[in-house]
Structure formats: structure tokens, C-alpha cells
Design brief:
single chain; alpha/beta; 5-stranded parallel beta sheet; about 300 residues
Length: about 300
């Protein structure tokens, strides 16, 4: 097998990956930046690779994300676009995402955000309790993850709508498709959940044009990608009271820098990209399998469509 290099901006993540492969895929020849033979690597296993690092690998034959998303690779403009890109797809990913989003919806539906905000002031105020059926939740993105998330929320009694680029039919969900139907989908929403893939057309989609159609005092849950969100538009929507809060699990730069305004923005709840993640064993097995397939000239698993971006 060829040499594999770990490329992450977070040193702790690099250490974790090295230990993961040592335990679950010891047959791989794993290198780190700075190793004597690092420049000979044929496979780069990445999560937010340092700028310029991919361009320093003349023998690179495969880029492999350790998650389902691959947009973080685009931040390194030195990479060769002809090199194939693969991602990790964990069948349990949907369950984790469904649990996180359900918790997030409950967070706003039952007013836990208001209770926690008042805790420091010893402020005793019981939030108004609303039936789930009177609480409108919209899910943007109805793919392999978004559709089960919407179904879980509908099963919990919420009034759920879904929006996608192309028409979908999901039992128990009111669905909308395409740009012309977006405003109707957003009208009066209490919580908007974003699970869209990141493409040129969805970058910055969470902005004024979206927020203004939602209910006054509504909330946002973003589990898509950090680049979906216009942070300044979010700040303005929170300051005006149009939005009462936002639960954010994804960011343009991860880890989120300590001086990032989002840490201190009133009404914003930051979680460390924890909504759902592939298991250690799943990452190791899928990367190792694709390394073997590459060496044997076989079709790669979970290869990304360069035009679609996922």
C-alpha cells in the first residue's frame, strides 16, 4: 500500500487519527507533516488541511475526508482538482443527527434557552408551554439525513415542512421544492433546521432573505455547513428580535477561534461539530478499504461527484 498522510489544522485531531489508524488499520503506512517521507504520500486523510499542504504532495492520488462533508478541502487552493475525493459515510450518522436536531427543537420549543439565560440572574419565569402540533419546524435539505430527521420530528408531533432543490414526497411531511417555493416554506416557521449540502448555490443561504419570512421570535438550527450562514445577517436578526436564538454546530473555521464573535453573540448557542460523527472503526475501515481499492485499480467507495460537490 502507498503512504498516507494526515492533514488537519487541529494537532489534537491529528493525534487522534494517528491512534485510530494504529489500532484499527495498522497495515497503513501513516505519516504526519514534517516526517522525512511526508512528501511521498499518495493518500491524504483530511479535515481542514492547512493552506498549501495539498500542493506539496506531488504523488497524491486520493483525497479522503474523515467526515461526510468535503467542502473543507476547497479551502486549500493548492490542491489538484483532478485528484479524486472520497468521504466517510456512516450508516449510524442519521441517528446521531436526528437526536441532536430533536434536542435542538425541544430546546426552543420548551423555552430552555430562556430558562438558561435567566439562570445567572436567578430569574424564575416559566416559559409558555405550547403543544408540539402548534410549533412549526422547517427542514431544509431532504436527502439521506434530512428526510429521517424530518420524519422523527413529525413523529414527535411537530408541524413539519421540508424543502429541497428537487421535488420529494415524504409521508407525514409537507414538502416544497425549488427556489419559487422557498418563501412559502419559510412562512411562519418557529424553527428552521438547515441540513443542505454546501454548493455554490447554497453558500450564504441563511441570510436576511430567509430570516424575514420566518415567525417573529423564531430560531435557527444549523447542522449543514458554516458557509451556509451569513453571520452578520444573523447578528442583525437577533438584535432586532426577528430571531430569538440560533443553535450552531458548524463553522467556516473549525475549531471556532476563541476571538470569533459568535462565541459572545447573545442568543447563539455554540456546539463543537458534535451533532453526529462517524465512528472510529467506520473511519478506519472505509479509508483503509479505499486505499486498497486505489492500489488495485478498483472503483472507489463514496467518491464525490465533482460537479455536485457531494
Amino acid at each position: 500500500m502507498g503512504k498516507l498522510i494526515l492533514l488537519c489544522q487541529n494537532p489534537a485531531l491529528t493525534d487522534w487519527l494517528a491512534a485510530l489508524f494504529a489500532e484499527h488499520a495498522p497495515q497503513l503506512d501513516v505519516l504526519r507533516p514534517g516526517d522525512a517521507q511526508a512528501h511521498l504520500a499518495e493518500v491524504a486523510v483530511c479535515w481542514f488541511p492547512p493552506a498549501g499542504s495539498l500542493g506539496q504532495l506531488p504523488n497524491l492520488r486520493l483525497l479522503h475526508s474523515i467526515g461526510s462533508g468535503v467542502d473543507h478541502l476547497a479551502q486549500d487552493s493548492s490542491r489538484d482538482p483532478a485528484v479524486p475525493v472520497c468521504r466517510v459515510v456512516d450508516p449510524d450518522h442519521t441517528l446521531g443527527m436526528s437526536e441532536y436536531v430533536h434536542w435542538g427543537v425541544l430546546h426552543f420549543h420548551r423555552g430552555f434557552d430562556q430558562v438558561i439565560a435567566g439562570h445567572g440572574r436567578q430569574h424564575w419565569q416559566r416559559p409558555v408551554q405550547r403543544k408540539a402540533e402548534h410549533f412549526k419546524v422547517g427542514v431544509m435539505g431532504l436527502g439521506a439525513i434530512g428526510a429521517p430527521v424530518a420524519q422523527r420530528l413529525a413523529g414527535a408531533g411537530y408541524d413539519v415542512r421540508g424543502w429541497a432543490r428537487t421535488p420529494r414526497q415524504i409521508e407525514g411531511i409537507s414538502t416544497f421544492a425549488g427556489a419559487p417555493s422557498l418563501h412559502g416554506f419559510l412562512a411562519g416557521l418557529d424553527v428552521l433546521v438547515n441540513l443542505l449540502p454546501l454548493t455554490a448555490s447554497t453558500q450564504g443561504v441563511l441570510n436576511h432573505a430567509v430570516f424575514r419570512h420566518m415567525a417573529d421570535g423564531s430560531a435557527l438550527i444549523n447542522c449543514g455547513r458554516g458557509q451556509h450562514l451569513d453571520a452578520e445577517h444573523l447578528r442583525q436578526a437577533l438584535a432586532s428580535g426577528k430571531l430569538r436564538g440560533a443553535l450552531l454546530d458548524v463553522f467556516e473555521q473549525e475549531p471556532l477561534p476563541a476571538d470569533a464573535p459568535l462565541w459572545h453573540m447573545p442568543g447563539v448557542w455554540v456546539t463543537p461539530h458534535m451533532a453526529s460523527a462517524a465512528s472510529d472503526l467506520c473511519i478506519a475501515r472505509q479509508v483503509a478499504d479505499n486505499v486498497s481499492r486505489l492500489a488495485a485499480g478498483l472503483e472507489l467507495n463514496n467518491r464525490v461527484d465533482a460537479e455536485l460537490g457531494y
